[in-house]
Write a structure and sequence with these properties.
- By secondary structure, this protein is an alpha/beta fold.
- It has a single domain, classed as Aldolase class I (TIM Barrel, Alpha-Beta Barrel).
- About 45% of the residues lie in helices and about 15% in strands.
- The protein has helices at about 1-10, 25-30, 60-75, 90-105, 120, 135-150, 160-175, 190-200, 215-225, 235-240, 240-250, and strands spanning about 10-15, 35-40, 40, 55, 80-85, 110-115, 155, 180-185, 205-210, 230.
- α3 (about 60-75) packs across α4 (about 90-105) and α4 packs parallel to α6 (about 135-150).
- The longest helix is centred in the first third of the chain and has 16 residues, at about 60-75.
- It starts with a helix and ends with a helix.
- The structure holds flavin mononucleotide.
- Flavin mononucleotide (FMN) binds next to β10 and α10.
Amino acid sequence: MQKAFEEIRNGIVLAELGGYGDGPYCAKHGAGAALVMLGTYIVDAGDSVPYPAYFVFKPGRSSYAGYLEEHIVAARSSGAQVGVSVVSVHISDTVDFLKAAEEAGADYVSLCAHSTMEMFVRARVGAALCHRQNWDRLRKWAAAILEAVHIPVIFKIGASDTSDTIGAVEALDAVGIPIVHVNVGNTDAGGEGLAILEQISGKCSLLIAGGGVTDIEGARRVLSAGADCVAIGTAAMKQPDLCGRIQRLLRN
Ligand SMILES: Cc1cc2nc3c(=O)[nH]c(=O)nc-3n(C[C@H](O)[C@H](O)[C@H](O)COP(=O)(O)O)c2cc1C
């Protein structure tokens, strides 16, 4: 696990971007980053998410095995570690998917406990997993994923309620989730996002954080607030070389 931490510590993470962040996108926009994330979803028949169909799978390996093989290989030409993220309504579907991602060569897997989409929240998953009334469920999902895969597991969470966010990070650390990725929404100097990070810092083994990072100053603010890695999503869409540039500055 320490080796996995060292590979990404003080590094840039190209954040999940459903609808954009497939393998070729990660290869180009994540070139020179420490970690690139492929974001996907599993939905039941009749449900839908606002992303192109090829990011969205029905439960079952025949639905996603080909995607995982093709896009993990493509993402790897970024030179970064490759992670795959997913969420589904049923835990068994998420576990099967993340096992398939590991078998297809992913270096990290991630549970998207970040999505506020109605179909997930209604089922008390996605962002609802971090609400204090669902922490037992959060622990159960974490334990099931940890038992199924052998590569580092990330839980990605939002930060809509500070005390629930801090409690969720502590609950995840207590069951052995090594890496938390928190999107604090805004990382402006002196803002609430950085204040939340300062409170989460040290409560998990490795903390990835982002939200509104567009430049080296923003990345340094996130690291100074206690994160180990900086996630960049939207800004990297417009500037394909941004992650690599900031990564070089951080590590030089
Ligand atoms: C178009 C778009 C698609 C996104 N898709 C996902 C996703 O599939 N999974 C996920 O966990 N987060 C997703 N996010 C959230 C981003 O990964 C990131 O955490 C968030 O945008 C904050 O970072 P930023 O301000 O640098 O964009 C998405 C964001 C955008 C703008």
